[in-house]
C-alpha cells in the first residue's frame, strides 16, 4: 500500500454561532426550519410514540415499545436541532419543550448507564446480542444532542446522561473487554464530540477502538449472518485503515469516514489519512451523482458498483447527502483543501437541500434524478431519519462558511452576512460578506480587524468556476497570491482595521456531460450554474411527455431571476433540440408545485454546425 | 443533391459611416491605421515601384514594370483604405495623395479600357493568355477602390476608370463571347459592388457569368497546366452551384463564396444557396482553426484535407481571415443567422487582427498557432496583399456591427459607440452602445427612435455564450422573445423615443478541447474568453521551454485587465499542470514584445480528482 504523504492542516471550524446569515437564500429557510420543521418533527415524534417510549422506559407511564428500535435517535436529532436553533435565537417555549423531553430521556437511562428504550422495554435480556440493533447508534445521537444542548443552554442534564452512557460503553467494550462492531456507525463521531466538550481522552480513544474493531470478523447479528448483505454492508469487510473502496449502506459509510476524519484530527494517524484519501477519491470520482447524491441502490440503501448512477431509480438518501457534508467538512479542516468544501457546497445546494419542501414540513427520503411524476415529499416516514437529520443540519449550516487556519481565515461558503473569527494570536476579525450568492458570483468582503495586523485570508474558488477576478482595497492582485493553491487564493498581508476584498466568480451556465463510464448518462447533458444543478419539471414544460426534450450542448439560455417563484429562483430558459421553449429550475426546488415529471439529465440533441477545432 | 430550403432574409448592411466607434479596443486601432498604417503602405507602394508602374504604363515616365504582376492591386487596396478613412474623417492631405495616384491610374488605362500595368508594360501582346496572371483580380480591386472613393468623395474619376474597365471585360467575355476563368477570384464580388453603385444590371450579370464559367474546363494557363495544382486550386474543379467542399487557395475560395453570396442577394438562386450552405459547413466545421484561421498549408496557401489543422506550420494567411469576414458578413445578411456573425467576430478579434502589430506598421502574412520564436511581423512583403487588406479592412470594421432587417435592426457586433439606422419605413433610429466589450459582457443599448414606433431589435447572443440576461426598460424579458432564434433575441415592440436594453452575456473563461478528428490537438486544450482566443507567450512564461507547459481543463484562472499591457488586454493567470504560474494573453497581441515562443493549444494536464458524473 502506497503511503500518500499529506501534511495535515488541522484547521479549526468556526461555529455557526459566530456566523450571522442574512441572505435571501438561507435566512428564509432557517426561519421556516424554526417555525415549521422543528415543531412538525416534535409533533411527529410525539404522535408516533417516539417520545412516549422514553416515559415508558423510565416507568413514568405504562406501555410497550412503539415503532422501530432506532426511533430514539429521531428524538435526539430533533433536540440537537432545537439546540442549534436556540444558539442562534433564544426561544423559551422551544427550550421548555426540550427540557421536558430531556427529563423523559434521563428517566429512561438505566442505573448502569444503558439507554435504548427498545431493549429496556422489549428485550432487556437481549442487550448487546445483535450489532445491527442500533444500540450505540441511538447512543451516538444522544451524545450529539447532549453536546449541542449543553453548548446551547449550559444545562448539563443531557450531557450527564450522555457521559454516563459513554462510560457504560467504555466499561463494557474496549481492549481486553468485549468486542463490538456497531452495525450503523454514528457513535464513533459522537464520542469525539464528547471528548471535545469534556476533554476526556477515553472518549476519543473508545471511538478509535470502535473504528479499529471493524474488519476483523468481530461482527455478528442479523446483518452479518445473511449472505445477502455480508460485512461490506456495514463497512466491516476490511480494517478501516485498509479501506480502499466505499461499500455498503451509504449513510453508515459516510458516518464512518466522518469519524475517521475526526479521529485523525486528534491522532494524525497516517494510515487513516491514506485510507481517507483513497475512499474519498473512490466516492466522489466514481460513485457520486451530479447532485452530490450517493448510494444508488434502494436495495441496500447504498453503493453498488463504480459508475452505477441510474437516474430514475437513484436512491440517494437525504441523510447520505447530509453525511457527505459532515465528512467533507471534516476533510476540509483536516487537509485545508477547497475540493472538500466544493462537495459540501454541492450537497448544501442540491442533494441535501432537495430533501425538504419549501414549506419545511415535507421531506424526501429518496432523491432520484428523474421521476415520471409519482415521487413526492411527505410529512414523515416510519424510518424518519431524513427529516430529523435536516432538522439538525439546516440550523447549523453557518458552520460550513469559514475555517480558522491558525494565522488566517478560510472563506469556504459564500453567503450574505457576517462572521466573527478569533485567530490563534487572539486577534479578532469580523468578516462581512455582501453577495447575492448563489445567484450571482460577486462577493464583497469587508475585513474588520481588532487592530491592524498580519494574517491570511483564503478565498475558495469553487471547482465549478474557471475564471475569477479579485481585488483588495480596489486593486487587482497580480502576484502568486492571486493564483489558487489547493483551491484557495491566499491573501497574506497586514490588514488595516477596515479593508475590502472584491471577488467576482464567473458563474456561467455550464453544460455537463457525464464520463463515458456512466452508461446511464451517455447521450445526455445536465445543466449547472454556480453551485446549483438544474432540472426540467413538467409544470414548466408541459407540452411534452417525460424524456421527450433534448438539449444541445451549444444552446444558449436566458438567465432569469424570478423572486416570486419557488421562494426566489434563477430559472434558465431556452429552446430544446427541436426548437421548443423549455425552462429549467433548480433541482432542489422540484416537487414544490403540482406534480409531474422531473429530469436532471436531458437527452443531448445532435450538435449542428460545430466548429472544426 | 438534396436541396436545402432556406428562406432568404436579405438584410441590408449598415455602412460603417453610420457607425461611430468610441471604445478602448477599436478606436485606438483606427487611429493607428490612419496615422501609421495607411501612410506606411503608401510609402511602401511608392518605394517598391507599385505606384510608379502606373505612371510608366501611362507614359508619364520611362521605365519597365517593377515587381509582380498583381502589384497594382495593392495600390488599389490602399486607396480603398484611404477612402474609408476619409469617410470617417476628412483629411485633405491624404485625399490629395489619393487624387494624385488616381491620376496616375487613370493615365495607365488603355483606350479600350484595359488596365493592368504588368501587361501594358511587359507583354501587351500576351493579354488574356494566362488566367493566373491576375488581370481581373487587379481589376476587381480597382473597382472596389473606385466605388469606395466615389462614396467617400463624390469624385467620379476612378469610378469612370472602373466602369470603363468593367465594360471592357463585358465586351470581351460573356455568353457567346470568350470564356474566362480568372485564377484568383475578386472581380466577381467587385462587379456586384459596381452594380450596386451604378445600378447597371450588366455588372452583376457579368459577375454571375464569371462564377458560372468555373468548373467546366474553361480554365487554362500555368496553374491549370501543372499536375501539382490542378483546377481545384482555383475552385475550377466543379461548377460553383455544385460546390460541396472548400478546396485550394484559401483567399481565392473565400472571395469566390463572397461573390456567390453577393450574387444570391440579387438573384436568389436556390442552387447557389444550397452550395453556400454546404461549403460554409465544410469550411467552418472541418477546416477552420480556433482563431478563425483557414488554409493550413504553405504549399498551396490553402486547404488540404479535413481536420488537418497543424499549429506550428499553420499558414492561415491574414487575407484569408479577412476574406472570411467578407464572406460571413454577406452570409449573415443573406440568411439572418447569427452563426455567421459569430465567425465574423472570431476573425475580427483573432485571425485577422493578429495580422497587424500594435504599432500598425508590421504585419503577419502567415499566422501560425504555435511558434518557437522565429516568426515575426515585418513592415512589408514582396507579395504584400495582407498589409493592404488590413488597410482597407480595419477602417471599415464598423460595417459589421449592425444590419437593417427591414422592419428592424440586428446588433451583430458589440462595441462602445453609436449608430444611426433607417428602417424601410423611413423611421430613423439611433442606437447607443455602452460597453467594455470584448473584455466584459455587459452591454447597455440606448434606443432613440425619431418617433415612437413598432420595430424589432435583434441582439446577437454569441455562440461562445451559454447564458445571458436581458432587460428592456429595466424589466426582464420572459416570453419567447427572450429566447434565441437563429442566434438572436428578437425584441418586437413599440419603442418609445428613449428606451434602454441591458444585455449581459456570460463571458467565462472557456477551456476548449478539439474534436477527436483534429489529431494535432489531441491531448491539448485552448483557452477562450468571450471572443478572444488566448495564447502563452514566452515573455510571460519564461521559466520553461516551448511546449513544456501543461494545463488542466479544471484549473481556475485569474481574469485580470491590464490597461498598460499590449494596448490594454485582459490576461489570464493560473497554474499549469505542474503547479507553475503561467499567464495567457490574447492571441492577436502576440509578437508585440521581445521575441519568444507562442502557443495556443497547450498540452492538457492529467485531470486529478474529477467527479464521477
Number of strands of chain A: 23
Q: Using the 3D structure, state the CATH architecture of the largest domain in chain A.
A: Alpha/alpha barrel
Task: Please name the CATH topology of the largest domain in chain A.
Answer: Glycosyltransferase
- Overall body shape of chain A: globular
* Residues in helices of chain A, as a percent range: 25-40%
Name of the CATH class of the largest domain in chain A: Mainly Alpha
Structural class of chain A: alpha+beta
Oligomer: homodimer
The pair of chains with the biggest contact is: A-B, 60 and 60 residues
Low-confidence spans of chain A: pLDDT under 50, at least 5 residues?
A: none
Brief overview:
By secondary structure, chain A is α+β, with helices and mostly antiparallel strands.
Tag the structure with descriptive keywords.
10-stranded mixed sheet, Beta-AFase-like_GH127_middle (chains A, B), 7-stranded antiparallel sheet, 3 domains, 18% strand, Beta-AFase-like_GH127_C (chains A, B), alpha+beta, 6-hairpin_glycosidase_sf (chains A, B), 613 residues, homodimer, Glycoside hydrolase family 127 protein (chains A, B), 23 strands
Note down, in words, how this protein is organized.
The structure is a homodimer of 613-residue chains. With 613 residues, chain A is of the alpha+beta class. Chain A has 3 domains: 12-400, Glycosyltransferase (Alpha/alpha barrel), CATH 1.50.10.10; 403-505, Immunoglobulin-like (Sandwich); 510-604, no CATH class. Helices cover 34% and strands 18% of the residues of chain A. In chain A, strands 3, 15, 16, 17, 18, 19, 20, 21, 22 and 23 form a 10-stranded mixed β-sheet that branches. In chain A, helix 8 packs antiparallel against helix 9 and helix 9 (201-213) crosses helix 11. Chain A is globular, with a radius of gyration of 24 Å. Chains A and B meet through helix 12, strand 10, strand 15, strand 19 and strand 20 of A and helix 12, strand 10, strand 15, strand 19 and strand 20 of B. Strand 10 (467-472) of chain A pairs parallel with strand 19 (557-562) of chain B. Chains A, B: Residues 509-603 form the Non-reducing end beta-L-arabinofuranosidase-like GH127 C-terminal domain. Chains A, B: Residues 409-507 form the Non-reducing end beta-L-arabinofuranosidase-like GH127 middle domain. Chains A, B: InterPro entries: 6-hairpin_glycosidase_sf, Beta-AFase-like, Beta-AFase-like_GH127_C, Beta-AFase-like_GH127_cat, Beta-AFase-like_GH127_middle.
Amino acid at each position: 500500500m502506497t503511503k500518500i504523504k499529506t501534511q495535515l492542516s488541522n484547521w479549526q471550524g468556526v461555529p455557526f454561532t459566530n456566523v450571522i446569515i442574512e441572505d435571501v437564500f438561507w435566512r428564509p429557510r432557517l426561519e421556516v426550519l424554526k417555525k415549521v420543521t422543528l415543531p412538525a418533527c416534535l409533533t411527529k415524534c410525539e404522535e408516533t410514540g417516539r417520545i412516549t417510549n422514553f416515559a415508558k422506559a423510565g416507568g413514568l407511564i405504562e406501555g410497550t415499545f412503539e415503532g422501530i428500535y432506532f426511533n430514539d435517535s429521531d428524538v435526539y436529532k430533533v433536540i440537537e436541532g432545537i439546540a442549534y436553533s436556540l444558539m442562534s435565537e433564544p426561544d423559551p417555549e422551544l427550550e421548555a419543550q426540550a427540557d421536558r423531553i430531556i427529563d423523559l430521556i434521563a428517566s429512561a437511562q438505566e442505573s448502569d448507564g444503558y439507554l435504548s428504550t427498545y431493549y429496556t422495554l422489549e428485550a432487556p435480556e437481549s442487550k448487546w446480542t445483535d450489532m445491527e440493533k442500533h444500540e450505540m447508534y441511538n447512543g451516538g445521537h444522544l451524545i450529539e444532542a447532549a453536546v449541542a444542548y449543553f453548548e446551547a443552554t449550559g444545562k448539563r442534564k443531557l450531557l450527564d446522561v450522555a457521559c454516563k452512557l459513554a462510560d457504560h460503553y467504555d466499561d463494557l467494550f474496549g481492549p481486553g473487554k468485549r468486542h463490538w462492531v456497531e452495525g450503523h456507525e454514528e457513535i464513533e463521531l459522537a464520542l469525539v464530540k464528547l471528548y471535545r466538550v469534556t476533554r476526556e481522552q477515553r472518549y476519543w480513544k473508545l471511538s478509535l477502538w470502535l473504528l479499529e474493531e471493524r474488519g476483523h470478523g468481530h461482527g455478528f447479528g442479523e446483518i452479518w449472518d445473511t449472505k445477502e448483505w455480508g460485512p461490506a454492508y456495514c463497512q466491516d469487510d476490511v480494517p478501516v485503515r485498509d479501506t480502499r473502496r466505499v461499500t455498503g449502506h451509504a449513510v453508515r459509510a459516510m458516518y464512518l469516514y466522518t469519524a475517521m476524519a475526526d479521529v485523525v484530527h486528534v491522532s494524525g494517524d497516517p494510515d487513516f489519512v491514506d485510507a481517507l484519501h483513497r475512499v474519498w477519491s473512490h466516492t466522489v470520482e466514481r460513485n457520486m451523482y451530479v447532485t452530490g447524491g450517493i448510494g444508488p441502490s434502494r436495495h441496500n440503501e447504498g453503493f453498488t458498483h463504480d459508475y452505477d448512477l441510474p437516474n430514475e431509480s437513484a436512491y440517494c438518501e437525504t441523510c447520505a447527502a447530509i453525511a457527505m457534508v459532515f465528512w467533507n467538512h471534516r476533510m476540509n479542516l483536516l487537509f485545508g483543501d477547497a475540493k472538500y468544501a466544493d462537495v459540501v457546497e454541492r450537497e448544501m445546494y442540491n442533494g441535501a437541500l432537495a430533501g425538504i419542501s419549501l414549506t419545511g414540513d415535507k421531506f424526501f427520503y429518496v432523491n432520484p434524478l428523474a421521476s415520471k411524476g409519482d415521487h413526492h415529499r411527505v410529512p414523515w416516514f416510519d424510518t424518519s431519519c431524513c427529516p430529523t437529520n435536516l432538522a439538525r443540519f439546516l440550523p447549523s449550516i453557518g458552520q460550513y462558511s469559514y475555517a480558522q487556519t491558525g494565522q488566517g481565515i478560510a472563506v469556504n461558503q459564500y453567503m450574505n452576512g457576517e462572521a466573527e473569527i478569533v485567530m490563534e494570536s487572539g486577534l479578532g476579525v469580523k468578516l462581512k460578506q455582501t453577495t447575492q450568492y448563489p445567484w450571482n458570483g460577486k462577493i464583497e468582503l469587508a475585513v474588520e480587524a481588532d487592530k491592524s495586523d498580519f494574517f491570511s485570508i483564503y478565498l475558495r474558488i469553487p471547482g465549478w468556476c474557471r475564471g475569477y477576478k479579485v481585488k483588495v482595497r480596489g486593486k487587482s492582485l497580480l502576484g502568486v497570491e492571486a493564483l489558487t493553491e489547493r483551491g484557495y487564493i491566499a491573501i497574506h498581508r497586514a490588514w488595516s482595521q477596515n479593508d475590502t476584498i472584491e471577488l467576482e466568480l464567473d458563474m456561467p451556465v455550464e453544460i455537463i456531460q457525464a464520463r463515458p463510464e456512466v452508461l446511464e448518462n451517455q447521450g445526455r447533458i445536465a445543466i449547472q450554474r454556480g453551485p446549483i444543478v438544474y432540472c426540467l419539471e413538467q409544470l414548466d414544460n408541459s407540452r411534452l411527455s417525460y424524456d421527450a426534450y433534448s438539449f444541445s450542448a451549444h444552446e444558449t439560455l436566458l438567465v432569469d431571476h424570478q423572486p416570486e417563484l419557488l421562494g426566489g429562483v434563477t430559472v434558465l430558459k431556452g429552446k430544446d433540440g427541436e426548437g421548443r421553449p423549455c425552462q429549467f429550475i433548480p433541482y432542489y426546488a422540484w416537487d414544490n408545485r403540482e406534480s409531474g415529471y422531473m429530469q436532471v439529465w436531458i437527452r443531448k440533441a445532435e450538435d449542428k454546425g460545430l466548429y472544426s477545432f
